[in-house]
Amino acid sequence: MTPPEATICQQATVRLVPTAYYKPPVLAPLVDDDEELAILAEIEGLTNRRLRAQSTGLPGLDPRELAFNVWGQSYINAAFAYTRAGGNRFNDESRGAWYCAFEDLTAIDEVAFHKTRELAAIGVFEEETVYQCLLAAFVGDFHDLRAMTGSPACLGKDPENAYPEGQALAAALREYGSRGIIYPSARRAGGTCLVAFQPHLVQNVRPGARWKLVWNGSPQYTAVAD
Question: What pTM did the predictor assign?
Fold first, then answer.
């Protein structure tokens, strides 16, 4: 069943990125002028998926789709160029998407879930990570799972079961021309998330607050403003 659409005007959705990725170009201190920077950037582009996506594209991503000449373009393009092994709730490994939340606390619980899974995989719950909020605006019609009756399988808490369902739904909706999906958070009761399927939908990106997430020996974490 195709979810109904909802018209939204959200001016400050929240996406969290580790501050390790929120910094000036790492190559800049290594060069003396723009010509040298261009040479090193070309070398970096051989292994950097975002740069390759911007120059020649990727199998599931045309460079003409990407953002250029706007603040935050590298973060927008990276969201679509990089994918997690096995994909996420509404994208597979062939193409990324822009995930965000309507509230800071929902965004925190979403990223904390994935970080906790990574720590569980290595059996070490000792970590401090600072995240930068990226605020973005979304205006228009999006398919809305909040209006669906029952509990769609794609919204389950277990990625092994829910993600294949969500990826199949997203693929069908993209064929239909969908902009993306609004859905209730599986990680925070009452929270709302949004996934955008095209880079040009991500508007007015700018920095927001910073949060430090701390794991101190257990899967439970604390979040404090940094």
Answer: 0.88
